Amino acid sequence: MTAPVFLVEENSLTGVFPGTVFPLDGPEGRHAVSVRRLRVGEEIVLTDGAGTGAFGTVAAIEGKDRLDVAVTSIRSEPEPRPRITVVQALPKGDRGELAVETMTETGVDAIVPWAASRCVTQWKGDRGQKSLTKWRSTAREAGKQSRRLRFPAVADLATTKQLAPLLATAAFAAVLHEEGSTPLATAPLPETGDIILIVGPEGGVSPEELATFEQSGARPYRLGPSVLRTSTAGTAAAALLLGRTGRWG
């Protein structure tokens, strides 16, 4: 098995080099010691979630919530090309976390929660903030589980109108739609820049939303002969594009 990944604070790996002994404490240290039960000599990876990873071995166990890591190498992942963002309409129940989890494991670079007009779920007030926090926590945990060094950013909730500036800057933007005349599998893709996929709710993207997206350069594309649920469509589409762009090569 590959070494387990643990998340450290932003910028905390700055100045860390091979030979450094780095302390891992707090919730991550507790998880490493008390849940994963790592022992001295076992391999471990620390990451800031922004592309930097410190690879090393457990040098010492300090109580129930801290261990020291002897760093053997530092690796840095460049920004992916092209970058893939999924605009995800809010699913019902816990299917939102499922979508975030599988998209993160697949390799999506950013996720934008979208309040589509036909969404049954509504994020408002404290409930909305709690749901957003769950999505971000899910992305972090899935990033560690899938051994990523660069975790996807989960943006604030966006309305249809607020998506227009994002789409306008995309190198390629697609709305997944069962009535799209062009298969996503044959769409011309850029070698760099941002690819944006829009995944509608269970009730579908409304004609008004489609018109707004097309004005911003996002055309409708079909994914395949079957209709996927909103919680799985983004993962399937991202996998297709990761293969086509060579990022899975």
TrEMBL record:
Gene3D superfamilies: 3.40.1280.10, Hypothetical PUA domain-like, domain 1. Belongs to the RNA methyltransferase RsmE family. Its main location: cytoplasm. This is Ribosomal RNA small subunit methyltransferase E. It catalyses: uridine(1498) in 16S rRNA + S-adenosyl-L-methionine = N(3)-methyluridine(1498) in 16S rRNA + S-adenosyl-L-homocysteine + H(+). PANTHER family: 16S RRNA (URACIL(1498)-N(3))-METHYLTRANSFERASE, RIBOSOMAL RNA SMALL SUBUNIT METHYLTRANSFERASE E. CDD domains: RsmE-like (cd18084). It comes from Streptomyces orinoci (Streptoverticillium orinoci). GO terms for molecular function: methyltransferase activity. NCBIfam families: PRK11713.2-3, RsmE family RNA methyltransferase. One of its GO terms (biological process) is methylation.
